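INPUT
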Amino acid sequence: MRFQQQVEKPPEVNLKIWACGSENCNGWMRDNFKSDENPDCPLCGHSMVEEEKTLPVLENFSAVHLKKE
Ligand SMILES: [Zn+2]
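OUTPUT
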């Protein structure tokens, strides 16, 4: 019998993010990277919508992300 190795889950936080409103684009960014109150998507220029996302605290802090499908 094998013991399953216990993987510690990294701590997660609920963050406000901005997701691209376009159906054809998966771009999103953290609220603290937005350029103004109603940011446009840096990838396609579409307006973005406010969302909440649960992210690991230690995730790398690049400005633009792609949603994982
Ligand atoms: Zn976009």
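end of record. Residues 20, 22, 25, 27, 41, 43-44, 46 surround zinc ion (CB under 6 Å).
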